[in-house]
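Hey, resending since the last one bounced:
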Amino acid sequence: MTDTLTKIPAYVAVAIIFTDLAVGIALWLGITRIVKRLNLPANTQRITAVLMAVVPTAWLLLAPTLAATMNSYVPALHPGAPTIGMLPLILMPVAIGLLLLRSRTWQNIVVTAPQHWLIGIQIYRIIGIVFLPLMVLDILPAYFAIPAGYGDLITGLLAPLVAYWVWKQGNGWRYLAILWNAIGLLDLAIAVGIGSGILYSNLSHTLFNEKILVTQPFAYFPLSLIPLFVVPIATVLHIYSLIKLISQAQTTTTKSNAVSVLTTDVQ
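The structure tokens again:
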């Protein structure tokens, strides 16, 4: 495995680290700005700013070590796949992101967050393109790299376009946003499913002549930063976006029905 990791080009490691830092900074700037817009107490603003800086940074530093440790002790589903023990490390930040919705303050932050911002920020998903050169270098299998790489690339490239249409509120913007979120979540599910070995099948051998799914490098730095940091954040952003889209659609429908009833009564 050490030989495989040393084959990872420096530009891939730099791109991954830069993307993670950029995402963390963008989230911190966005959330602290929203908190100020909500005119929350100064103490709440300070606590939120500190937590949004410290917690993601601590996870970014700690998670790769935890992943490598689990890979040593927890068996994998298939030869060459990362240990299934990495899944809790991927799902835990997602669970925390959902549990935060129980907080009234966090609910207000999510409600206030512009829909086009929740979508547009995911332009960072283009980082998945690094899977393709790693496939050429025989570090990652085509069975994983092609669907995950192109899926992330398409999702990331569409993010600013969909965000612009949502911001402009063009025709069908809500349906377009829901479709984009669905595609993004499907891409993440496929990538995690294949990478962990859960979706392992003979299809890999049939289409790509690969009998063994070798994605173990994701259990180690720097590739581990993608499933442990980028993937959970993307998942939570998709869920927040969908929650806002669905709730706003329901509110609009309720208002329309109320207007219709009033109009009927007047007539």
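The chain is about 75% helix and 0% strand.

Sorry for the duplicate.
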